[in-house]
Design brief:
The structure is a homodimer of 214-residue chains.
Chain A: H1 9-27, E1 32-33, H2 35-42, H3 46-54, E2 66-67, H4 68-79, E3 85-90, H5 94-101, H6 103-107, E4 110-117, E5 126-127, E6 130-134, H7 138-145, E7 149-152, H8 159-168, E8 173-176, E9 189-192, H9 195-213
Parallel strand pairs in A: 3-4, 3-7, 4-6, 7-8, 8-9
Antiparallel strand pairs in A: 1-2, 5-6
Helix pairs in contact in A: 1-3, 1-4, 2-3
Chain lengths: 214, 214
């Protein structure tokens, strides 16, 4: 399993927010963007922003901040978002469909080229213009599509079975939205996305709010 | 804005995974669960698991591990997940509908009691048994429902306007799935959920995989 230094993960998670702000500044025609402005926008400490951005290799200028165009490119290059990644979504229920239609992904180089579903009522149709194929076509279609990245939004009970299938079809990167910690070979990258994690954060913040009021 | 210590956030984000494993052990009738078993299951270091769990106040026994029932209760209690929180989902498109139907939330005490949408074609119907009302009914319905938590899945351009409305209706906790960093008063808790964050993690892991192969 490929792990990144655990201490890096929160910084990596914040990079997309920085990128969004940097792109807005670029579209606005700004030449420089200060870490303090980014920090204020995101309710973070300026030192945190500078530390996070340093992992991309970008260097700011004293008193002026980061050169905007270079900042956008540094984040994109660090995340490999300057290159197109073709992906498929397995399971085109509400969540899968939402991900296919998510407007942000294309800007990050993520191009979802097909969906797959076990439900014959969903296959043959298009979701946001993306074709949905029967899941039984995985082994024939994936190599043909040249895809090695898959987004998993199937019901939990099928998560491991579908993962095994995807791996056997050459998938090397799996973005897993099920709550099953699927097992995959060492050379396959898995990112587990747990919607409950965000709710845990909201819950803690809410609890702190109540404690302050008490 | 209520902030938790930044260093705590990754631990809090992992608690739901620990809770899932602890609940499975409980259902399986296990009396103790070791940090090492949890660590193996989640591909984490045992010391990380013990550090994370320590924030809940749970204490393990040498060589035996954590008492399972107490562990479940400690995590639930720390997150306030042993108490019901009623919430509404604003915007019942694919993502909003997926969140309404997400099976995990009920287990965390999160009870989504209604959806709201601006699209008359969506209102009046039910999503996973949950009624969807016109967004114009917010101010009359929210106090009546006794809800102070809202999940925001509207198109980005409406995010701030809807946030202002929710705040004026008494919402105190906002789980924001739009990519707009909405502004809210100091006494309102906001958790920004950015699907791009997870993709940034997958991208970095994938990049490291490629670099190892090169």
């Amino acid at each position: 399993m490929y792990k990144i230094k655990v201490s890096y993960a929160p910084s990596v998670r914040r990079l997309p927010s920085y990128l969004l702000i940097a792109r807005q500044a670029f579209e606005h025609g700004d030449e420089f963007l200060s870490g303090t402005v980014i920090a204020n926008e995101l309710s973070l400490e300026p030192i945190q922003v500078r530390k996070d951005l340093s992992i991309t290799g970008i260097v700011g200028k004293p008193k002026r901040g980061y050169p905007v165009e270079a900042l956008v490119k540094a984040i994109e290059s660090y995340l490999n978002w300057d290159q197109e990644v073709k992906a498929v979504v397995i399971g085109t229920g509400n969540l899968g469909s939402a991900l296919i239609g998510f407007p942000g992904f294309k800007k990050h180089g993520l191009n979802i080229v097909a969906g797959f579903d076990a439900d014959a009522k969903k296959t043959g149709a298009k979701v946001y213009g993306v074709p949905v194929y029967p899941i039984t076509d995985l082994s024939s279609r994936l190599p043909q599509l040249g895809v090695t990245t898959a987004v998993l939004t199937v019901p939990s009970e099928f998560a491991q079975m579908v993962t095994d299938q995807l791996v056997s079809c050459g998938v090397k990167a799996l973005w897993n939205f099920t709550n099953v910690k699927v097992k995959a070979p060492e050379d396959v990258v898995v990112q587990n996305e747990d919607l409950s994690s965000g709710y845990a954060m909201l819950s803690i913040k809410n609890r702190l709010r109540h404690e302050r009021l008490d």
